[in-house]
Amino acid sequence: MALRSIIHPSVHAALPGHFPATCTIQENTPTRDSYGQEIPDWNDLAGHVGLSCAVSEKGSTERRNLWGAYPEAQKLVALAGSYPSITNEHTVVIDGIQYDILAALHDSQSASTYLPIRVVRNAGA
Question: pTM for the full model?
Answer without folding.
Answer: 0.76
